[in-house]
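User: quick one
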Amino acid sequence: MANLSLRNVHKIYAGNVMAVKDFNLEIEDREFIVLVGPSGCGKSTTLRMIAGLEDISQGEIYIGDRLVNDVAPKDRDIAMVFQNYALYPHMTVYDNMAFGLKLRKVPKDEIDKKVKEAAEILDIGHLLDRKPRALSGGQRQRVALGRAIVREPKVFLMDEPLSNLDAKLRVQMRAEISKLHHRLNTTFIYVTHDQTEAMTMGTRIVVMKDGIIQQADTPKKLYDMPSNMFVAGFIGSPPMNFIRAEVKGENDQLYLVLDDGLKLALSEQQQKLLKEKNYRNKKIAMGIRPEHLHDATLEPLSKGYNEVKTTVEVMEMMGAEIYLHVKIAGIPAVARVSSKAEVKINQQVTFHFHYDKMHLFDQETEQVIR
Amino acid sequence: MVAKTKEKIGYLLTHGFLIFTCLLTFIPIWWVLLTAFDKRVSLVSTEFMILPKNPTFDNFVEVLSHPKFLMWLKNSFIFAGGTTLFALTLATLSAYAYSRFDFPGKKAGLASYVIYMMLPTTAALVPQLLIIKYLGIKNSYFSLILIWSAANMAFAVWNLKGYFDTIPKSIEEAAIIDGASRFQIFTMIMLPLARPALAITAIFIFTAPWTDYATSYLFLTDGSKFTLAQGLFGWAADFKTVSWGVFCAGSIIMALPLTILYLVFQKYIIGGLTVGGVKG
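Assistant: Done. Structure below.
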């Protein structure tokens, strides 16, 4: 168990390629931190710097109170689970799990006890004599987790551990890793490109892009209050719709005008904010999540709701819901409505959405207006 | 129906041809076996035989009790074994370095091996002879071990490097995090994983000194260091003192270790040990 501190961490590769830029993060003891972002965003590099597999070009990493920049990986009290499991193919499951302890000269009976305990937690007790090649993907990943557990590290590092598993197994293992976190009660740092994994597992999520932290927050806050268009578009599935709009209005009353002339009402708070920040007569991006576009036939108009009329272009039946692909003011958008809605392709449809659900972003900086 | 018959005839013809050529290549070997296990003295015969007329083990008894033959056998084992050990140790270490580390001259080093392989063996003979002379190790076991090791390094390094390249880096990284040192990773992870490649490379290295005649003929003047190939050739040239039957028995004994090696390590030639450790 330990807290972690990353201060002004940079990773610069040969040729001045900046993989991670000024990474600052305080990780509390027992947190489940998820680093998420598209490939090449620097999330794995950050994890590997914490592990000690990559040098830190600039900045400091502390595990507990100890500066670990120049500490060898084996002395950092961490364990890591790799995307491709990285089991030792020539060793049995037992030996794979015991290897780290043997190197640390832990007494044999203690190794035996720890391996068997971990095997029981992961339900792989019956596989201890097998070689990795005789295991399924899910079993291999359990062994990789087991190898980390027996070490009883202060920090668990996981580099996309589920991305080689099939969809069903992934969901199952996701829950198991969460359970494991509760059971072991230690700090987890988990890297993934899958926002669903991030949202379901993390106590806090760090969204990265181009080596820079975009936002580090709880899943709920990331979803409800994304700090920029990237985060807003990355978190949530299907992603948030962005529609160009101009802030218009005379006197005190401000509203948004879409490209097709449709007027959208703003809450008093939003109006006040836009006035303060001088957005009158300026173009902004209005973001609205697909689930906040309600089918008008199922939800009558009431105070605070805007209305938009459009035509259904594509329908995707998901079971409990339908994804409707439409255009709002000429811009492709998706609405996520109940499958009770009776809609057909090419049919006119009206959506209601509350102005509180609208996210307002600066068109140029792509930052949320606040 | 017609197509099927045609296919069948084609199948029979190709296989008939293949079996015929196999038999053809096997005839000399069979003839050696016949001569070794038969009492006749001549290598040439007008009689057609499939099995020995007067079967005997006398030739083997004679060859194995011949003091020179046993000396040559011992020498061949020392040369081939020594070369294998020496070249394999060096090649494994350098192949691992070439596979895993970045250092100045890496590309040039690897390329130099290829260039060396492209040179005709004879081109190196004179310089080798001079080096051996200057080192003052002429007629020693080490002199030829050195030459055969050098001759096999290029193949061995490339072959082993190619295999190390296929072992995912993450396995080593997992070991680093588990607390293994570079040396421990090399000995406890990489070497066991490279067993198939090591076995194949070892067999190839072993084969070279074992079957080579020209090198030992050129470099060795001391009869007590002669190899089997060299000694047997001497017998073949001087068939007055030794019968053909004994010569053939000697040849069979010489072929045995390699045959056994190939049979034993067959599974490694097919084997893929890394299967299962990582995904993909």
